[in-house]
Automatic annotation (TrEMBL):
Pathway: Amino-acid biosynthesis; ergothioneine biosynthesis
Keyword Hydrolase: yes
Top-rank taxon: Bacteria
Domain annotation Glutamine amidotransferase type-2: ranges: 2-269
Coiled coil: none
Designated name of the protein: Gamma-glutamyl-hercynylcysteine sulfoxide hydrolase
Reactions listed under catalytic activity: gamma-L-glutamyl-hercynylcysteine S-oxide + H2O = S-(hercyn-2-yl)-L-cysteine S-oxide + L-glutamate
Name of one Pfam family that matches: GATase_4
Function text: Catalyzes the hydrolysis of the gamma-glutamyl amide bond of hercynyl-gamma-L-glutamyl-L-cysteine sulfoxide to produce hercynylcysteine sulfoxide, a step in the biosynthesis pathway of ergothioneine.
Chain residue ranges for the region called Disordered: 246-269
Amino acid sequence: MCRHLAFLGPDEPLGRLLTEPPHSLYHQAWAPRQQRYGTVNADGFGVGWYADGDPVPARYRRAGPIWADLSFADLARVVRSGALLAAVRDATMAGADAEAAAAPFAAERWLFSHNGAVTGWPGSLAGTARTLPAEDLLSLQARSDSALLWALVLARLRAGDTAPQALSDTVLEVAAAAPGSRLNLLLTDGRTVTATAWGDTLWFLADQGRRAVAVASEPYDDDPRWHRVPDRTLLTATRQDVLLTPLKDLSRKDPAGDPASAPAEEPRT
């Protein structure tokens, strides 16, 4: 379900990442190479990007397929950014709030996307949803599993959790409540990218010379520098480096009851 991509690096037109590469996100909307569930991502798309000097991202989202939006090609040709998150959508359930259900979701400086599906939705997360304040539930951006995942992540961020902790705790909580869920989450604030590989494919490309990094459901070209992220892994990236941490390590406790550090962090640059 879905394909998504985040990028940090020098300013360049959105199209150089989203439409021009031979296997770009635009092409993945109808011809993904590695998608395990579903075949066509025609249930909406979106891109969020950051402008210099403004920490709050702009978004462009539509309910239909990306190839049917004649305005997007012009936007992607002229809008430049050094930080973005984009996604094409294959809906878990048809008719869920149209454009409002298309990633990226946004709040304050954050952009968020979910590639996957929650098993047993919505009943499987009824108990988990009750942990959220009523105001958060009433202001959900869409009636979809992805929107609820975003609400869970955002509540943790607003409570003071770091982005890696917010994503990892959400994935572990939802996986316990709904076993078999696919929970590839992607989050950025324009300075860092945090992602999880949980049940679906995730790759990254780090270009140290350009101080750039791309994190994507699948490679958008055949550059040999793409690295596949192992399943059950948390990825944290900046323009300088990438760290991979097994998610199981994040749930371990030391004898005193404090979270143990993750000893298996793997730097990639």
